[in-house]
Structures are given as structure tokens and as C-alpha cells.
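Researcher: I'm comparing several assemblies side by side, and this is the next one on my list. It has 596 residues spread over two chains. Same procedure as the others: predict the full complex and return the structure.
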Amino acid sequence: MKIGIIGGGSVGLLCAYYLSLHHEVTVVTRRKEQAAAIQSEGIRLYKGGEEFSADCSADTNINSDFDLLVVTVKQHQLQSVFPWLERIGKTNILFLQNGMGHIHDLKDWRVGHSIYVGIVEHGAVRKSDTAVDHTGLGAIKWSAFDEAEPDRLNILLQHNHSDFPIRYETDWYRLLTGKLIVNACINPLTALLQVKNGELLTTPAYLAFMKLVFQEACLILKLEDEAEAWERVRAVCGQTKENRSSMLVDVIEGRQTEADAIIGYLLKEASLHGLDAVHLEFLYGSIKALERNTNKVF
Amino acid sequence: MKIGIIGGGSVGLLCAYYLSLHHEVTVVTRRKEQAAAIQSEGIRLYKGGEEFSADCSADTNINSDFDLLVVTVKQHQLQSVFPWLERIGKTNILFLQNGMGHIHDLKDWRVGHSIYVGIVEHGAVRKSDTAVDHTGLGAIKWSAFDEAEPDRLNILLQHNHSDFPIRYETDWYRLLTGKLIVNACINPLTALLQVKNGELLTTPAYLAFMKLVFQEACLILKLEDEAEAWERVRAVCGQTKENRSSMLVDVIEGRQTEADAIIGYLLKEASLHGLDAVHLEFLYGSIKALERNTNKVF
């Protein structure tokens, strides 16, 4: 099928490479130079010391020709994408943002499109406008949002490279909250403490502090199985113990973090339901201060 | 009497100006240029739009001629002062550091000197090597540490300018912990959130988070009257609502903070007595990360 990938970051290039093996893919980028580079060079993917390449189209416009649009920009960039999507004919749109900040937007978004949401469990680092390093093999998991009908799309997306499985899940809320709780526990703490993920397990006070954050987030998300979720948070910390979280990397590199997508969603939900979010409010305020910090010269 | 003031920062210059009105004062500085400037120009003090000046000696050496030495350097600079103090004849030494980090050092310090500790409740901003702005009128409160005999010194220190009262207190632990609990609650939070002191009262989640920090610190310090102490923390936040805490200013200006003096003492005590310090550990780690941050170029 004809797939448009919106966004030429690490996730966008990763999706573009793998999906172009079975589909006709166009990457839609903001910058003309990146579109021109992809159009002429294709996309290179590095994996396990090897280099692969795939031909790919690219454009700076979204048109109505696509059977599926995969939106890979960050949550805080979505506002500039929505107007484009409102102008095109009815199609399938899969949103692959971190966190759940976009959920509040999608709930209020009245358009004819069939909307899907998903999570990316791959590790990927963009090396250039046309190259991506596939650093961690994982999966993409997606689900229908609202009343979308996923069956046809599901069949079309099941044929894929074994390093890039795409799995359908029936419950979008369970899918997204399952990832959000992990991000909410690990990302802000590692960004503020400037530690690798594993240190949240090995420093007892940090683990205890993370548990307090976890408990707040659990109540807000109304998670059914708290014990299972906490084990998952600990497991991810352990499996990624040598990694720097994306929020820590964003802070170090002076970029805007995904605090709104991750903590902002929880705070909005807490406020809607009159729940306490003392630790999350503090983490949010501190990360936002850090963003202001690194964006100015003292 | 002959008084030596060790340190030419804001507190050192403030003490030097006021004490020189009734005593023979020498400021001992690390830098030769500052000593030379004080020696030739004296000290200027700004207060309420007026300018005052006082003659003053200055030196870069500590000798045995003093009846009283007032140590005004920061806690993390004390280690370079101790060896000097160990070489001079027995005298009275008053330590005016923020926090209580120096208490662990003083307890282990076996010297013949009579040791006193005190707190500074003045607002003061150094304007140059020889000038200080007395921004907030307060008091100096001091107390005998260990077995020092304060009576004679107390009589000599009671004659003072009315804007610079010096008050003797009988219980050094009560005196220092009373100030520490306020600093521990206000300083790290305002530095991480980058807010003025008043915002800790007006944002409900920040107030609730500060209460959690307060409760941890109270248990560690074994404070007798928790309710009174909490009221004092709130009162100071209110009275200084438009102020930036010293730790916030240190972070903004890329200087080392007094995290060790303030939180470090509490963590050491918690560890000695097997007490929980989950929030304080997190604050300490985050402030230390911020110090590393501002001291390097990303």
C-alpha cells in the first residue's frame, strides 16, 4: 500500500526503511533539504555493524494519495501537523508519539479519518538526514483509537521484516498507559539526577523515590495490576541499565523534552479527577526549569 | 578588642564594617588585591540609599594577635582555613557558616581554641572587593560549641550598632537546626524549580512536596516542636516571597551551592542513625547534577 511517514527523525527514518521493503513509502519532512536528500540517496540503516539501504520517496507536503499515514513527529510538534491532516481526504492515520499528551488532542479532534495509536519499542538514533542506527531491536505495537476498524490494515501490516514486527493490540488505553508508566518513572528522575537508568535500581533512595512517583501515576492512570506494572518498571530499568533515557539526552543536548507528553498528561488527568500529584508536579516543574536553563546562556 | 574576620565575602564585609565601629578589625582575605584594596580604601556599606564607610586593616595571613576570629567563608572553603587555625595560639573562634556541614568537622577538631558557632540573619550582597549592600536588617545569633566559656566575649560583643545586633543563645544545636530546617525546605526546591520563595506557598503541590521534605528533615534533626518549626518555614517563605534563595542564585550564576552544608549534613545524620531520607537524597542528587551542568559547556 501507499504509506506516508510524517517526520524524518529517528523513528520516521526507521519506519521508512523497513516499511519500504514491502510498501510504497514517502517520507514527509519539514525541511526541503532533508526531503531532497532522501529522494536522491534513499535511506541507509545501520544494524549490528552492517549497512543497508532502501529507495524511498520524500516530500514536504502531505497529499491525499496515501492508504496510511504514520505520524512520527514528537507530541509538541503535532499542533503544526493537525491542520495538514484536516485538509486531506479520509484515510488511516497511525500516531506513534511517546507519552500520552496527544490523547487529549485526539479525543477533541473531529475528523473523518480512521485513527490509530501505537508505541515504538525499538532503539534508534538518527545519524544524518538520510541515515538511522537501529540500536535496539523491538516492536511497534498499535491499536485502534475511537471507532476505527483495524482489520484490513492489520493484514497489510503483518508482512514485515523479522527485525521490525508490527503487532496489533486490542486495548489502546492499556497499550499506551503500559508504556507511559515506565517513562514517567524513569525519564524525569534520570534527567534530573543525570544518571543512567540502572542507577535508579542500585541507589536505594532513588528506587524508593521512584516508587512514590509510580504510586501517584498508578492512581491517576487507574492501572489494574500495580504489582505487575512495578515489576515492569524495574525490569526496564535493569534491561536498559547502561542507557541514558531520552529525557536525559534531551536535557544534555539542550532540546525541549517530552515532559508535556509524559508528565503533562498525568497532571492534566490528575487535575480532571481531583487527584494528588505532588511528586509529579515537582518533577514537571524541575524539568521545565532545566529546559529554560539549557536554552539560555547564564 | 582585636577581631580578625576571615573571608571577604558579603558576610565578612558586613561584619567588618559594623564590628570596626567598636573594635580593631582586620579582614583576612585569600586574594592579595582584596586585602590591599581594603587596607587603602576601608569598607563601604550601602543601606537604605545611603553610603557609609569605615577604616579597616586587611591581611592575607592569620596571626596570633586576635582576641576573636570570625570565620565567614563558606563551609566548602573551611578545609583550607583549618590548617591556619591549627598553627596559631589559643583564641576565640566564631564560625558563621550556613547549614551544618561544618559541625561534623568541628566535632572531630581537637584544638585548644574556644569554639563558637552562629547564624547570620542579615541580607547582604557584596558589591565589590570593598563594598557591601546591607539589603536586609537582621541579627547575628551565636552560641558556645563544646565547652567554650562565652561570658566575657558576650559582654564585649553586646555594644553594637542597633542595625547589627549580636545575640547570645544558650543552645547551639537548637540555634543551628532552627535555621537548617528552613534552608533545607526552601533552598533546594527553589533552586530546582527556579522559583521565588513565595511560590512554594502559592503552588499547592510545591507546598505539599516541601512538607514531605520537612518531615524527613524533622525526624533526622529530632526537632521537638514540629508544628512550630513548620510554621517558621512557612513564615520565612512568606516574608521572603519576592526573594531568590541563595541556592537558586548560586545555580543561576554557575557557582558551587551549599548543598553539602545543608542537605549533606542531614544525609550524613540520616545514615548514622539508619533513617530514611528519600526526598533529601533525590534533592541532593539533583542539585549536584545541576552544579555539574552549569559548570560545563554542553
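Model: For your comparison table: Chain B has a mean pLDDT of 93.
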